[in-house]
Structures are given as structure tokens and as C-alpha cells.
Amino acid sequence: MSGLWLIFTMAVFGHRGRRNKKTSVGTLLCLMCLFIFSFASLPEAQEVSLQENKTCKLDEFLTEDGICCNKCGPGFKLLEKCHGPKERSNCIHCPDGQYIDQMNYSNNCRQCKTCKAAKHEIEESPCNRSQNTKCRCKDGYYRYIIDSLTYDCLRCKKCKADEVERGTCSPDNNTVCGCKDNYYKVKGKCEPCKSCSSECSSLCKSPTTVFPEVTKSVNPDGYVINVISGTGAVIIVLLVLVVFITYMLTKRYTKKRILRSSQRSDASQESCEQVLVNSEEHLETSVKEFPQSAVAEVEGSKLPDCVPLEIKLSELIYTVLDLVPVVQVKQLVRLLGVTDTEIEQAELDYRSCREAHYQMLRAWGSRSGGGGRGGMLHRPLLKELLEKLRMMHLGKAAEELETKYGIQ
Length: 408
What we know:
alpha+beta, elongated, single chain
């Protein structure tokens, strides 16, 4: 195309220079040739472009004719390619001593490898049409890699007198040697330990402690070995004994404390009952010594409503505990407004069930204005207690309280 454009340019310039009929005829002929060649070459260029852009499947290849032909499988080579889209290529087996280990459209197979005994190789698996020969180093030799395709079989290393074998020689790895105990490596040689250092920690003296003596030694592979001396077993036994003795002492102390608390609650209950008896005796003595005329005056007249009539709180509580079943005491105190927190605290503070119930009722009396000076409870609060007892279907207990305290 570039040649044609050159001819066209020369013809135009020649036409401008000579300006005669012969030149104009030649110019026209050149232009006609140029267009003819351009149109003639256009389909061929389009066809080449289509061939270049055409893609085939992974198991196919593109021929010069623009046809996708199937490749040959491993162990086969191409004898003749296909001639159409629906035809298949002609593939044949690789001859003996040759192989191809992948899909291909090659006309030739590869030559099988031969293991070289002179280089200390032995055959691991023989060659077949789809796999090359596999060779390995014989026993006592290992593979030394030179590059991705080249290696040598070298003799396995033998550990020296001051070394021990850390890793056995194999066809792919050399022997791994390390220094013996109490030796350390200096410039590739094992030297005996002479002083305390990080490499010779066995010569380091550790300070005397109550804990087991631990000696740390580092082997050539970098692993830390902890060696626990025999005194460790003795220390462990002593620790177990200390724990056991501590447990027994704690158990005995807890038992004594519980017993003391129970005794204190019983003594408290007895003291309360004694105070109640003393107060009743004192009340009877006072009544006997009081003039009969004064008594008659009190009975004949009514006290004004502003004068509070009070009841001794502790006496009332013990009377209630005698009348109300144990299983219903919590229900009663909840109806009287005692919180669950106060109930739980009473149960934690007192081991005796009766004493815990006493504290629950005392919490109600104290919060309601009772339990103040002299531990007295206002009579209106007693009426509230009677109402709650009747709500719990404990009418008999309410009647006995009314009889005892003279409530009509």
C-alpha cells in the first residue's frame, strides 16, 4: 500500500510539472491501479482480522485455516489436524521411550529420561507414554538443588565425635547435627562449656528459693528444655499439706462460729422471755398496789382518742410466732410491707428460723413507728395486723390476740 501511494504522489507531481496529455493519462492509470489493489486486499485483511480474534476452547487449538481442532491427550501426539469444525484431529500413541504428559497438538513426543548411576541416581518409577522417568538419590545420598531443573546427589554428612544427630538423612535432606550436652558451637565447631553464658546455662548457679529449681538449657535447634530438680516433688507435697490443714482449720472455725451464733440467738430469746415475765410480774404488782377507787374511776370514764394506747412489741411478736404457722410467717410479713431484701437479710444473720422470723416482724414494727422508746407498738398497728391475719384465713389467731389485748 505504501508503494502505491508513492507512485500516486510521483504521478501527481509529474502531472503538475509537465502538464501534457500523456502524463494525465498515466496519472489516471495509476489511480485506477491504486483503487483496484485496495479493494482487492480489503477482504483478505478482514479475514485475517477475524482469524486473529477467534478463540477456541482450552482443549482445542486454532489452525491456519481458522478452524478450532481438538488437542491430543497425554501420551498421544498429533498426526493430522482436523479439516472442519465437526471433524476431529488424528492423534497416535507416543512410541516406546518417549512421552507427553499434557494436552498438546505437537507432532513429536519427548524423550524419556535415564537415571544416571554415575551420579548416584536410581529409578523410582519407570517412564510411560504419559509420564517421564522419576529418579531419586540412592541411600546414603541426598538431593542438592542447583536450580529448578538441575540437582546433584551428594553423600550424607556424618556427625563428628562432639556432635549428636538431630535429623536423619533422607533423599531430599542432609543429616542435621548438633552439639552434645555442655558443648556450644563456635564458627561451625563444637567447643566445651567453660563458663556461665546463654549457650552454657547449665553452668549458671541459680539463687536458692522455696520454689523448685529450674534449669534452662538451649539445644542447637533453639528448643528450651526445663529440668525440674527432685526438690520440686517435696515442695508440691508440702503445698498439698498446707492446703489441707488450712481447709480443716477453716471448717472448724466456721462450725464454732455457727454454734456460737445459735447459742447467742437462744440466749437472746430466753432473755426476751425473761424480760416479758418480769414485766408481767411488775404489772401485776402495780395493779395490786393501785387504789381501787382509782381503778373504778378509770373504768367508769373513757380516755380521749388523742391518748395513744401502746403494746409491747417483743411480747406481741412472740405471741404472733406462737399462733401463726411457721410456713405462713413470710407471707404475713410481706402483707405487712416487709421487703424481700429485709427477709433475706434476717435469714442470713440468724441461723434459727424462729429468731429470723422475729427480726422480720421487728422490721415491720420499727418501720411503722413501733420499736421506739421502750419497744412499744401503737395499738392502731395491731388492728392492721389483725386485718392481715384474717386475710390469710387465720381468724382464730386474730381472735386470741383480740382477747389477750382486750380489743372489742
